[in-house]
Design goal:
This protein is an alpha/beta fold and 430 residues long. It has twelve helices and 20 strands. The strands form four sheets. Strands 3, 4, 5, 6, 7, 8, 9, 10, 11, 12, 13 and 14 form a twelve-stranded mixed sheet that branches. A four-stranded mixed sheet has the order 19-18-17-20. The chain starts with 7 loop residues before the first helix and ends with a strand.
């Protein structure tokens, strides 16, 4: 059933019209970065590319990829394509693995961010009468700011509580009558856990009806747990600091992930060779920011693995549909010749009766290779019943069913694994 959209003209435009728009935007973008930024010009000149050589959308494949290492090399403002005094807002990644990636915004960029986030949250079901508890971490991280801008553009009330101080989250949720929770999926389950410890039933004692979750990979099994525990509909959001933050891809009511492709041009490549893949194939996502001013990213390699299809959704949107992220190419582990992603292990664990939401994948170095094991907390009730060897065998069986690989599972006491108010650390190395 076609639903009311935030921007019907853009979200349901014919695919031929979308491609015309993308090509015009791409030509303008290439000309702008070539004339405004010396590093982009050098990159183009090295590849023997001139702006007038971009005549079709396929010509984008002539342009070299942009990587996170490139962005760190030009830290902090080497790739901006405006004057520095035109930038009114700056965000950045955590920088835990090197120099942070910096995301500068002009006023038009900030307006664009609010627009694509409003479009995304509206597609989820957020409306003017909602009260959004924004439990993403504020600071340089883009997440909280993007959700705030979009919800406010819709006209919803935003509680700018940030992450952490979980008991206060629960008090505010109860007292303010929050109807939408925005945070990482793992933190939503930690809030539910603490609420239960305080004597609440998360599904019955609060007014939540919707969750807007992102910033980490999560399985359909995890989504089911969140929805049942809170009594809500849980929607996924996907974005990157390198592009704009959240607002690149989000779900409609049918839980199809729509790419805002009138602003972010998507490609799919073979991560090993860089060759372009066809719609429906699985590969690495590559995005170009067609309308960003301060910091346009051209052919940015995300390292996220997914597929893209072009079809009209039941909701009426014609924007391309992206699959859920299977994993990251740099999270991929090869064990005894088998490719393993953390999300596959999570999907297996979520099928085990009595499993909690808390687990860690442990990589142990043995000689020149790694051995995987999993530490998982049973629920309090399951832990009390004992016979945890049966629990472990069931978990190992589910992992084998998905991976065709034997991985040892160890049941550990509830509340052993540290809880996170942001991205959960799922893989540790010993």
């Amino acid at each position: 059933m076609t639903e009311k959209m935030w921007d019907t003209k853009r979200e349901s435009m014919p695919s031929s019209r979308l491609r015309e728009l993308q090509l015009k935007q791409l030509k303008d973008l290439v000309h702008r970065v070539y004339t405004k930024n010396k590093y982009y010009k050098e990159k183009f000149d090295e590849a023997k590319i001139k702006p007038d050589m971009i005549r079709t959308l396929k010509d984008i494949e002539k342009i070299p990829f942009l990587t996170k290492q490139d962005l760190r090399s030009y830290y902090p403002f080497g790739l901006i394509c405006t004057e520095l005094d035109e930038i009114i807002e700056v965000h950045a990644s955590s920088g835990t693995t090197g120099k942070p990636v910096v995301g500068p915004y002009t006023r038009n960029d900030v307006d664009l961010w609010g627009e694509v986030m409003a479009r995304s949250l509206w597609a989820n079901g957020v409306r003017k009468n909602d009260i959004v508890q924004n439990a993403y971490g504020y600071g340089l991280f883009t997440g909280a700011h993007g959700f705030e801008k979009g919800a406010q553009k819709i006209g919803a009330m935003v509680i700018t509580i940030s992450s952490g101080n979980t008991e206060r989250q629960i008090d505010v949720m109860k007292d303010f009558g929050s109807t939408v929770l925005a945070c990482t999926p793992s933190y939503s389950l930690h809030i539910a856990e603490v609420a239960e410890e305080k004597g609440f039933n998360p599904a019955k004692d609060f007014k939540l009806h919707l969750g807007a979750f992102g910033a980490e990979a999560w399985s359909e099994g995890m989504r089911d747990k969140i929805e049942k525990r809170w009594g809500i509909v849980a929607h996924e959001h996907y974005g990157l600091t390198e592009l704009i933050g959240p607002g690149v891809v989000s779900e409609c009511r049918y839980k199809k992930l729509h790419i805002n492709a009138d602003h972010f041009y998507p490609e799919l490549i073979d991560p090993a060779t860089g060759e372009t893949l066809e719609p429906g194939e699985q590969g690495e996502l590559v995005f170009t920011t067609l309308t960003k001013e301060a910091f346009p990213a051209i052919r940015f390699r995300t390292k996220d693995l997914a597929s893209i299809t072009e079809e009209v959704c039941e909701c009426g949107r014609t924007l391309p549909i992206q699959s859920r992220i299977r994993g990251r190419s740099d999270d991929m582990m090869k064990v005894k010749g088998v490719i393993v992603f953390p999300s596959q292990i999570e999907a297996a664990l979520m099928q085990v009766p009595g499993v909690s939401d808390n687990y860690q994948i442990v990589k142990t170095k043995q000689g020149e290779s790694y051995v995987l094991s999993v530490e998982v907390e049973p629920s309090e009730d399951r832990f009390k019943t004992g016979h945890l060897d049966n629990f472990e065998k069931k978990a190992e069986s589910e992992i084998y069913r998905i991976l065709n690989l034997h991985v040892s599972v160890h049941a550990i006491s509830p509340k052993t694994i540290p809880r996170s108010t942001g991205k959960a650390k799922r893989v540790i190395e010993r």
